[in-house]
Specification:
mainly alpha; two-stranded antiparallel ribbon; 13 helices
Amino acid sequence: MARKLKSDRVLFLATILLVGLSIVMVYSASAVMALERYQRPYLFLIKQGMWAALGVAVLGIVMRVDYRHYKEPVFIWSALAFATVGLVAVLFSAPVNGARRWFGLGGIGVQPSELAKLSAIFFIAALLERRMHRIDDVRYSVLPIGVVLIGLMGLILLEPDFGTSMSLLLIAAAMIFGAGLNYRYILGAALCALPVLYVAVMGSAYRRRRTLAFLNPWDDPLGDGFQIIQSLIAVGTGGVWGKGLMNGVQKLFYLPEPHTDFIYSVIAEELGLIGATAVLLCFCLITWRGLRVALRAPDSFGAFLALGLTTMVAVQAFVNVSVVLGLMPTKGIPLPFVSAGGSSLLINLLGMGILLNVSQHASSEA
């Protein structure tokens, strides 16, 4: 008798809880700002609600599609080609806050770097499945991955979007490490990358300012250190129980774009330590269950796919929360499932749908 396929309920529930929280907190964080700028207090609430509904529908459909279809060469190369075209097209779009990361498509903002991450995960998972038996032969196993990554990261850096390019690199590193590459190669690559990273950060005026502001934000409290200071004030004044939903102060034109990159600050201020910890717990559950799916996957492709998708969410969440708490320099990385933004929410829910499908085929053994 065929085994009845069941998705990971804990993974599904944690994801849906974050999406539900997103709709509430995006409204709370954006209502006053939207009223002031656009005379429409419900503007971002409506947008986020529509994207959330679409994303959950996509998740429901994708979790019923066998994940093995994603390793077909036609699908992988089509996804990479589509992502590359999008990354090139966005460079000719109108800049927003000095960066070209979005372009309009039928009145909808599209961020192709989000699709690039997902396409890269498909490619790396399929290639590692075929070549992991010679994983320490880096020319055979790792070099093709490096070529694709350099191409995608180069286009993303031109936007410029340093945070997303580094996230893509970390996702690839986790997947390659999971394939069993000798740690000496990874350590050597990290050491070689340090000078490049230093030049990339210190060679750019705005990245250098952000790094210096991170080291001592009080040197320029009204300039480059403003974001970090206001975020820390929001987190600190929330206390244990918070000020209550809609009662936050820092979102009132102190925190820049509180409904996107700094929405965790608003959560900490209004819902307190309890609410902020609950959000972290959801991400810990997603990471744990995602890694569990990877360990129990029936084949190598499913294992690498689950590892890549889990890392994609975990890295974004870690970076965003670290920035909010002043543990990392400011990056334009949204909080997965929670921050306002259609492309990020849709791609992350699509990824969760694929991960849930892998969980259906996973072994019941530990």
